[in-house]
Write a structure and sequence with these properties.
Blueprint (H helix, E strand, L loop, with lengths): L7 H7 L6 H14 L15 H11 L3 E4 L6 H7 L7 E5 L14 H10 L5 E5 L4 E5 L6 H4 L1 E3 L1 H5 L10 E3 L1 H4 L3 E6 L6 H5 L2 H4 L17 E7 L12 H6 L2 E4 L6 H11 L9 E2 L3 H16 L11 H22 L3 E2 L9 H6 L12 H20 L6 H8 L4 E4 L16 H7 L6 H17 L4 E5 L2 E5 L3
Parallel strand pairs: 1-8, 1-9, 4-7, 7-8, 10-11
Antiparallel strand pairs: 2-3, 5-6, 12-14, 13-14
Helix pairs in contact: 2-3, 12-13, 12-14, 13-14, 13-16, 16-19
């Protein structure tokens, strides 16, 4: 910062001009739009729905509330707005509420400027420090958001009427920045009332003090469209003060779901083992989530988050890696026999609606089977497998399982219909990839009622239906 102005006088000579935070965000958003860049980065599937509404809200200078179920990137969007702030902003040195050097609002800053004038020292604040965030909880108090009397300062000898006894809350401390409240309905209604002035009159009032702080804050909030836990609601006067209400949504297509998973899933330390996730297995993972979003046995009011797809992908890869480590194989490729492992990562992320206890596993299994069959029909040509089914009618039986070595599947690669399907599935000649493709083909034939399957203790045997 040595080459930047260090006093108010030097700042004036540099030509720097102060502007409200919403004007700052608006100007930087306009630069991105003119350059053909997204106003916020890292979002997938929102180009034609959420992003245009967000762009309009930013250009209009509105406070924004995002409504959507869990796992719809509401918090990510909010945090990404920080990128639209100027990278560095001058404040009066030592200011608790980021006082504008040209128009300080706190008493300490005003006194400092009155004493030193253009020699008043300033410091530069990075945009990452101009963002405040609070998860709304029922025990959140006005003191947390707005401020309170600091008893320590009173004990030091100041009068209660002295403005210097105030300990500022999160909102004033985010002056000239962006303040976010997550899960707004969880905020007690009497506390929501305390935000009315922030949104409309742009000031705060602390206790009985005759102090008005004309804050410059962009307020952003998130909430579920229907608070399915019945914890609270957003009071109408507060909702009315938000300039824009933007509804988020889950990915509408499997391609978008898969792209989100590819972007967000953790990369595992594989100890030198190569991880390959075939596209059809990645599609099965995404299809499980979409099956859950359509299922009448899953509570749709609580939502089925994209986090389900991410967790399932990570679990699928982990199970394949575990098998490769145990069998001493150099490559780990997820198979159909790895899918039962997804019960653990699925059960905690969906709310099952069932009249019978203990049916969660059956319902998840039904979701997985539906996803596999849907994907199999999209990737495979059923007419190719007539001769293969005839081979099973002739006595062929194939045993599979997560502990079956990949090399054991090599003998099945030349069976009628499978060799041609390997090309459709974009599978190479590596044993682990062939094993995955063989299991996928056989499972699809079973689910389409052309083969029987006997499963027990992690092993499965495919045989003719007759």
């Amino acid at each position: 910062m040595a080459d930047r102005p260090q006093t108010i006088g030097a700042l004036r000579q540099s030509g720097w001009e102060s502007r409200p935070v919403k004007e700052e965000v608006r100007a930087n958003a306009m630069v991105r739009l003119a350059a053909g860049e997204p106003v916020v980065t890292g979002l997938l599937g929102y180009d034609e729905t959420v992003l245009p509404q967000l762009e309009n809200a930013l250009l209009a200078g509105h406070d924004v509330i995002f409504l959507g179920e869990r796992g719809q990137a509401k918090t990510r969007i909010i945090r990404s707005l920080v990128e639209l702030l100027d990278e560095w902003t001058p404040i009066i040195a030592g200011s608790e509420i980021n006082d504008d050097p040209y128009a300080p609002i706190s008493k300490p800053a005003r006194d400092l400027v009155a004493e030193h004038g253009d020699d008043t020292p300033i410091e530069w604040l990075h945009r990452s420090r101009r963002f405040g965030e609070k998860l709304a909880t029922p025990d959140t108090a006005i003191a947390d958001l707005i401020g309170e009397v600091d008893p320590i300062r009173v004990a030091e000898g100041r009068y209660l009427a002295d403005e210097l006894t105030i300990h500022y809350g999160l909102v004033p401390r985010t002056n000239r920045g962006i303040f976010a409240i997550n899960e707004l309905p969880d905020l007690a209604e009497r506390i929501q009332v305390g935000l009315l002035n922030v949104l409309e009159e742009r000031d705060v009032q602390i206790r009985g003090y005759k102090v008005r702080l004309p804050l410059d804050v962009m307020l952003v909030a998130s909430a579920n469209p229907e608070d399915y836990t019945n914890r609270g609601r957003i009071i109408t006067p507060l909702k009315d003060r938000f300039g824009a209400q933007i509804r988020t949504h889950y990915p509408t297509g499997l391609d978008t779901e898969m792209a989100v998973v590819a972007q967000e899933a953790r990369r595992l330390d594989t100890a030198g083992i190569q991880i390959t996730v075939p596209a059809y297995m990645a599609e099965v993972v995404a299809a499980i989530t979409h099956q859950a979003r359509r299922s009448s046995q899953v509570n749709q009011r609580s939502g089925v988050s994209v986090r389900l797809s991410i967790a399932n992908q990570e679990t699928l890869v982990a199970n394949a890696l575990r098998r490769a480590l145990r069998l001493g194989e150099p490559e780990a490729v997820p198979r159909v026999s790895d899918l039962p492992a997804l019960v653990a990562s699925t059960a905690g992320k969906v709310e099952i609606e069932s009249l019978e206890e203990g049916r969660e596993g059956d319902i998840v299994d039904r979701l997985v089977k539906g996803a596999v069959l849907e994907t199999w029909r999209a990737w495979c040509r059923p007419e190719r497998f007539k001769d293969l089914v005839d081979s099973f009618e002739g006595g062929l039986a194939v045993e599979t399982g997560e502990d079956v070595p990949s090399g054991a599947y090599a003998a099945y690669a030349d069976l009628p219909g499978i060799k041609e399907t390997l090309g459709d599935l974009d599978v190479g000649e590596a044993p682990a990839e062939v094993a995955s493709a063989v299991e996928f083909v056989l499972e699809g034939l079973h689910l389409s009622k052309r083969l029987n399957k006997d499963a027990h203790a992690g092993r499965a045997t495919y045989r003719a239906r007759s």
